Amino acid sequence: MIKTKKAGDILNCITLKKDIEDFQGKDDCSEIPLEDFKILLAGKNVSLKTKLILNSTGLSDYNTLIRKCIHLLEIALYLSKNKGCFIIGEQGTGKSTLFTHFLKNLGEKTSGALTTALLIGNANINDESKIKNSDAFFNKKFVIVEEFVDESSINDSSVIGTLKNGMESGTFLKCKKNSTKTETTMAFIGNSYREIHRTGDLLQLKKDLPQSYQDRGLHDRIPFLLPHFHSFFGETKYVESDSEVIPIQYLQQILQELRDISNDKIYITSDMGINPGREFNIYNSFITSIYKLFYYNEEAPKWFIYGWLEFLKFFRSILIDEKIHNPFNKNSARFILEMLDYSIEKIDYVTFDNDRILIKLENKNILHKIALTGFAIENNKKEYSSYNKNKIIAPILNKSDDYLVLIQKINGELPFESRIYFNNIKKYNAEKIDKEDKEFNILILEEIEKYARLEKKFNEDKLKFRGVPYFYKKIILEILKEEFDFEKEINLNDFCFDSDRITVINFSKYIKKDIYYN
Fold first, then answer.
1. Beta bridge partners of residue 109, listed in sequence order
2. Which positions ≥6 away from 513 have C-beta within 8 Å?
3. Strands (DSSP E) along 386-512, which ranges?
4. Could you tell me if 314 and 325 are in contact, meaning their C-beta atoms sit under 8 angstroms apart?
5. Do residues 206 and 319 lie in contact, with contact meaning Cβ atoms separated by under 8 Å?
């Protein structure tokens, strides 16, 4: 039976630059690792499963959601045969740490430019026995190619074609002679020296790929680009010493066993907006790998698949699209909540502000504003440091030390159209009261104007707008001009409305860059 250990072993071995497996002690590996793994994960929700997997590979659960998702996808990559990904980013962001310290026995590492000979073996070998025993990357399960972006050009022009053909067909001509099966997984790791200040800047990363890798056909086999930048991640936090971890020898054994389990199930359904064909197969194959990691021999909830699909679309868009896909939306909202360990039974609704999720707690005037990326952490910092406790901004009650979380008090509600509900009864009741009714609001406005002309008082409860009327924008612009000297386009989703006042909830975008830090 697998026995978990404390993560102090991991921290000590990294500090002392010792091998983790040696440091943890080489006990006999489990004879039934998957059954033990199943027992170990039994009863744990997705947040606790995530924490255990992250801690076992050196990463704390107290990281931004995007940091955790990238790390998990890199682990699941090993389970995806004849597929791969690009891992591009700054130095010092742990691009290779997972493969160097934790999964090092699972992969073959190389550096620099690939050659056809490395992939399929030396073509000059003719002896059958030597061909069979010759070394070739396409005979390996997992190949990690480091520093590949530092190659300005690749002299071997057949490399990309060989990669595409082998990964697509699942076979290659070993030493250019013998047809041989391949199930190789590829990870291409490289440095980038770009400055990433916002999500849109990630589109520049595809330019860091060598010219020969700028091939759309290759991007159908190596379909995702995973960015590693301090600004994008926020500060990376490593596992706490008393955290529960799976010893690395067991984890590697578990991953080896999971890789060899065949799974032909189709997880991408017609309501997910993915057309049949190559894109469908790409997404389904990686969902299958992530599914294995979290729900081996179990049925995963639908929100788990929906959520991961949104993040996969995001990483795909960095590589092949002209516009970044936003992974923070109604399709991923439940997944994000579960990953953050929030119970949907204890919230009223959620909404998004770019890459922050806003969680309205059930029956409380409390809003948790959680940063999902490093950019969002900066927005939390801006708001906290510029908040001056006036009546215009919804009161900020508290924050976490790392600014991952801001807690605000709100009076009233956010606009109905921006809310995401998980309880249909709550949604139905809110829709009757809070959904905007433009025609009705025009009639109410005309009625109020009539009372004003006659200089008569009116009953506010009877003459109450439904939702947020369009002319509130003019009122809000006056508020923003006075408070922030802001006169550009606004988003009503940044504001909270009740019967007698308007307060600002999301205001980082309205703060001038040169005044927000103390």
1. 144
2. none
3. 396-399, 405-409, 495-497, 502-504
4. yes
5. yes
d(CA 108, CA 120): 14
CA-to-CA distance for 159 and 177, rounded, in angstroms?
Answer: 17
Contact 85, 225 (CB under 8 A): yes
Q: Which residue has the tokens 């508020």?
A: 479
Fill in the DSSP letter of residue 99.
I
The pTM assigned to this predicted structure is 0.92
Token pair of 76 as six digits? 């699941």
Tokens standing for residue 388? 């001056």
Q: How far apart are CA 193 and CA 175, in angstroms?
A: 37
Task: Return the H-helix or E-strand segment holding 47.
Answer: helix 46-56
Alpha-carbon torsion (213, 216, 218, 223), positive or negative:
positive
For the chain, give the longest Cα–Cα distance.
105
For the chain, the average pLDDT equals 88
The tens digit of pLDDT for each residue in 127-152 reads: 888 888 889 999 999 999 999 876 65
Distance of alpha carbon 172 from alpha carbon 82, whole angstroms: 12
| DSSP H or E segment with residue 349 | strand 347-353
Contact 142, 107 (CB under 8 A): yes
| pLDDT tens profile 488-518 | 888 889 998 876 678 899 999 888 765 544 4
Residue whose token pair is 């009740």 = 498
Determine the Cα–Cα distance for residues 395 and 157; give it in Å rounded to an integer. 61
Instruction: Indicate the length of the chain as a whole number.
Output: 518
